[in-house]
Design brief:
Elements (H helix, E strand, L loop, with lengths): L7 H20 L6 H6 L6 H12 L2 H13 L6 H24 L4 H8 L2 H32 L7 H50 L2 H14 L6 H4 L13 H6 L1 H11 L1 H8 L4 H15 L2 H16 L10 E4 L2 E4 L10 H9 L4 H36 L5 H22 L9 H25 L5 H26 L4 H4 L3 H20 L7 H4 L6 H11 L8 H18 L2
Antiparallel strand pairs: 1-2
Length: about 575
């Protein structure tokens, strides 16, 4: 491999797509009212909800992260994906009915009703920061990786700025309706592109059996540490550096609960559903779409081990962090973040390459637009509306648009800093491991404990995040960083410990003051009677409209895949 380039037809396809998707997004926009702008009028059908959830999740940052992590470690990274199906089922049963019944705009607004205004503001601020530095910034960075190959001499900040402008172009005018409708197109294109990459990669390797034999030969030669059985195993020993089984059992589900059940930019899509059934069907559909990710997004990373591990990519001029600064990456093995870009640029034919790049950029814009819209919703509904209670609906929309502009600028400024991390996926998961547990604890305790009160909810967040800051400061002072390699503590072990601490603080502080009144807890606490009443309503309902039956089918399919690759 000496060069990578695009044909004229590839450039044409990319430009036409990007212009077309911006035009379509603006055309599908709604901004007549705040409910139209932030929740698409609460009129989305289940297929749109499900595809939108999938597309917002599988952005270019996740796609590049999954493939690079599979290349760098093994397929165990897929555990995050199948666990999503399980989490979405639990979300549909316990959390979603309360969210939709309350008719809230935001997750912090829900916590305000359960706890108090202090908790709302604190959670909203944390979520906004998370959306900017995790979701939006990483999406821009992933888009930069894709385009860096085409424009190696262009500074990253220029590429990121242009990507930010393109993503915001239809988000600002049209709101959630624009985001959701463009996500449907982008999801279809992304899945199609991923299937093509997998097909061409398998064709180059020689098929599944050839992949197995190739991995075993690399193990025998000492080139890799694991044989094919280990590389393709989802259940890893406790000593595994990437996915120890206790971390899978205790840490991954909690990260999933935050992402799917408490995270504004994901839940916002379900809040846009026309009713509870469509919300549930959409969530289950999203869980179903997560299952093939193993074959079309994770396995290509394994195939890259056979195809490109020792490939010299120094001509790409991709810079990686080293002691004292940066240096040009030589072999792909030294810069796994480039795995998916190298796969597509090396394997795909002219025309198809342009289409797949368009799909990746679509995924990037999808996830970015999603986080921009959700973060602007938080700023507008949780702060602006509180500070200006008499503001009109059009005023709220305008505030949301201004907030989007500010947020995209901040994200674009932060994105280049991610280059100091060797692994995009590690960056995403480690940051989430510190943010997620206290929030999940607040929602879980709030939903199932009648004793938990406003003081418990608020101080559990404050004290938990104080401990997080102390731990981070300690790690930097003693180890020079927070990664597993530096501290010796896997981030998936931090997640359940921090969750238990947050739950304990919530219940302990709540016990020191009076319990909430029955009026305060009305329609906010799950009970067995709710499940029993719902069971009566489902009697006689055709099976494909019964979300419980659909949930069981999804869980069975998930179990088959997990057991097959255990």
């Amino acid at each position: 491999m000496e060069s990578i380039g695009l044909n004229t037809i590839d450039y044409v396809i990319i430009v036409v797509y990007l212009v077309g998707i911006v035009w379509y997004g603006i055309r599908k926009g709604k901004q007549e009212s705040s409910e139209d702008y932030f929740l698409a009028g609460r009129n989305m059908a289940w297929p749109i909800v499900g595809i939108s959830l999938f597309a917002a999740n599988i952005g270019s940052n996740t796609l590049i992260g999954l493939t690079s992590d599979a290349f760098n470690t093994d397929v165990a990274v897929y555990n995050y994906e199948w666990m999503a199906a399980v989490v979405l089922v639990i979300f549909s049963i316990f959390f979603l009915p309360f969210y939709l019944k309350s008719r809230v705009y935001t997750m912090p607004e829900f916590l305000e009703r359960r706890y108090d205004t202090r908790t709302r503001y604190l959670f909203s601020g944390i979520t906004i920061v998370g959306n900017v530095i995790i979701d939006t910034a990483s999406g821009l960075y992933a888009g930069n990786l894709i385009l860096k190959i085409i424009f190696p001499g262009t500074p990253s900040w220029i590429i990121i700025a242009l990507l930010a402008f393109a993503a915001a172009a239809y988000t600002i005018p049209g709101g959630l309706s624009s985001v959701v409708h463009t996500e449907v197109i982008q999801a279809v294109l992304l899945i199609f592109g991923s299937i093509l990459v997998t097909y061409f990669a398998f064709s180059e390797v020689g098929g599944w059996r050839a992949m197995i034999d190739g991995l075993n030969e690399l193990k025998a030669s000492g080139a890799i540490e694991k044989d094919a059985g280990e590389v393709l195993s989802l259940i890893r020993p406790a000593s595994d550096k990437s996915m120890p089984w206790p971390g899978l059992l205790l840490g991954v589900p909690l990260l999933g609960f935050y992402f799917w059940a408490n995270n504004q930019f994901m839940v916002q899509r379900v809040l846009s559903a026309k009713d509870l059934n469509h919300g549930r069907w959409g969530a289950i559909f999203a869980g179903l779409l997560k299952l093939p990710v193993l074959f079309i997004m994770v396995i290509p990373g394994v195939l890259a081990i056979l195809l490109f591990s020792d490939t010299d990519i120094s001509f790409l001029n991709y810079q990686i962090p080293v002691a004292g600064g940066f240096e040009t990456c030589g072999a792909l093995a030294d810069c796994p973040n480039m795995t998916y870009p190298v796969l597509i640029y090396s394997l795909l034919p002219t025309g198809v390459l342009g289409l797949v790049i368009a799909g990746l950029l679509a995924a990037m814009s999808s996830s970015i637009s999603a986080t921009l819209n959700s973060a602007s919703t938080l700023i507008t509904m949780d702060f602006v509306q509180k500070l200006k209670p008499g503001i009109s609906s059009k005023g709220l929309v305008r505030a949301g648009q201004i907030a989007t502009v500010v947020l995209v600028i901040l994200a674009a400024a932060w994105a280049p800093l991610i280059e100091s991390f060797r692994s995009l996926w590690t960056y995403l998961q480690q940051i989430l491991s510190f943010i997620s547990p206290p929030i999940v604890a607040a929602f879980v305790v709030g939903l199932f404990s009648r004793r938990s009160n406003a003081n418990g909810g608020f101080w559990s967040l404050v004290l938990s995040y104080a401990l997080v800051l102390v731990w981070i400061a300690y790690c930097f002072a003693n180890f020079g960083g927070i990664s597993n390699a530096e501290t010796g503590v896997h981030f998936l072990y931090i997640v359940p410990v921090l969750f238990v601490i947050a739950v304990s603080i919530n219940l302990a502080i709540s016990s020191l003051s009076p319990a909430p009144t029955d009026e305060k807890l009305k329609d906010m606490i799950w009970s067995k009677s709710i499940y029993q009443d719902e069971t009566k309503d489902l009697v006689g309902l055709v099976w494909y409209k019964n979300y419980r039956i659909l949930s069981v089918i999804l869980l069975i399919l998930t179990a088959i895949i997990v057991l097959w690759f255990a």
